[in-house]
């Protein structure tokens, strides 16, 4: 605007628009990672998008139980399976929980996958089962104390699912946060001969050992041995989907990870935090992705 036509005085700009300008400046600084507290700022400014909701439908049947895991040093491990009625063996997705979660994380009032799955099937989607299992807070790999939730999943739980009549020849992994990391790790370890798809929700990733949360890895050597960053090629031939919110503290590392693929994974980055509201919003797309590739 030409200066002679402006009716906004310098004082009015400072007093009247100062708060708006400051808010925009702070938001941009946080977005560019100049300031800490990105997740909090996004939530405060209402930038996380609409929350997802568990559908109000009759859920598919669930079954729960437990077993004693040799890989986890004799710990009793709980599990839950949600499976639509079927006359044929169903393909199955193993759902790995995040830090502080359990085999129930993907079900009930948590993420409600037994209801999302029922909705998916009712709308004509291909059926499959979802199975959750307890991994503790050990980031789904062998730890220095001998606890190995990774071996528990691959050597004990998956064979148990096969014994229960599921088609583990059509296997997928999914997970949220710590479990998203675990799903990507297992998909890379087993490769396309054994895994059809991986669908990760807000995977807990770091680009260096010095950035990791306390307890995620034993030390820098453990991080280097088990990080998925730099190992994207191990997922060649596996269908991969990764969804993360732009208000998620893990978003920068996940973006680095996604950029390391030769073929960009499905999913992407959209408004959301590191919480159930975002994970429930993404659940229908994640389930449709898994169904499509489990039946490919």
TrEMBL record:
Enzyme class: transferase
Acyltransferase keyword on record: yes
The reaction(s) this protein catalyses: 2 alpha,alpha'-trehalose 6-mycolate = alpha,alpha'-trehalose 6,6'-bismycolate + alpha,alpha-trehalose; an acyl-CoA + a 1,2-diacyl-sn-glycerol = a triacyl-sn-glycerol + CoA
One Pfam family in the UniProt entry: Esterase
Name of this protein: Acyl-CoA:diacylglycerol acyltransferase
Top-level taxon: Bacteria
Lineage of origin: Bacteria, Bacillati, Actinomycetota, Actinomycetes, Micrococcales
Family: Belongs to the mycobacterial A85 antigen family.
Sorted UniProt keywords: Acyltransferase, Hydrolase, Transferase
The keyword Isomerase belongs to this UniProt entry's keyword annotation: no
GO molecular function, one term: hydrolase activity
Assigned EC number: 2.3.1.122, 2.3.1.20
Record-linked InterPro entries: AB_hydrolase_fold, Esterase-like, Mycobacterial_A85_antigen, TAT_signal
């Amino acid at each position: 605007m030409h200066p002679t036509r402006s009716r906004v005085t310098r004082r009015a700009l400072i007093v009247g628009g100062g708060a708006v300008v400051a808010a925009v400046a702070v938001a941009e600084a946080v977005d560019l990672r100049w300031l800490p507290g990105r997740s909090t700022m996004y939530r405060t400014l209402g930038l996380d998008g609409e929350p997802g909701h568990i559908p109000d439908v009759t859920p598919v049947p669930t079954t729960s139980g437990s077993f004693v895991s040799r890989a986890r040093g004799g710990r009793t491990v709980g599990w839950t399976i949600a499976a639509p009625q079927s006359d044929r063996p169903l393909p199955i997705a193993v759902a790995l929980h995040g830090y502080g979660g359990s085999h129930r994380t993907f079900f009930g009032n948590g993420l409600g996958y037994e209801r999302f799955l029922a909705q998916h099937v009712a709308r004509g989607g291909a059926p499959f089962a979802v199975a959750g299992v307890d991994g503790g807070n050990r980031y789904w790999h062998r730890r220095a104390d001998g606890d190995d939730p990774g071996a528990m999943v691959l050597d004990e739980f998956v064979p148990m699912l096969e014994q229960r009549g599921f088609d583990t020849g059509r296997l997928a992994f999914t997970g949220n946060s710590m479990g998203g990391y675990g799903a990507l790790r297992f998909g890379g370890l087993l490769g396309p001969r054994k895994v059809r798809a991986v669908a990760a929700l807000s995977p807990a990733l770091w680009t260096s050992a010095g950035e990791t949360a306390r307890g995620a890895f034993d030390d820098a050597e453990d991080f280097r041995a088990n990080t998925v960053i730099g190992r994207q090629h191990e997922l060649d031939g596996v269908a991969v989907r990764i969804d993360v919110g732009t208000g998620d503290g893990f978003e920068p590392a996940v973006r680095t990870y996604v950029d390391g693929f030769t073929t960009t994974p499905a999913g992407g980055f959209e408004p959301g935090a590191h919480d159930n509201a975002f994970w429930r919003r993404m659940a229908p797309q994640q389930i449709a992705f898994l169904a499509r590739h489990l039946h490919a």
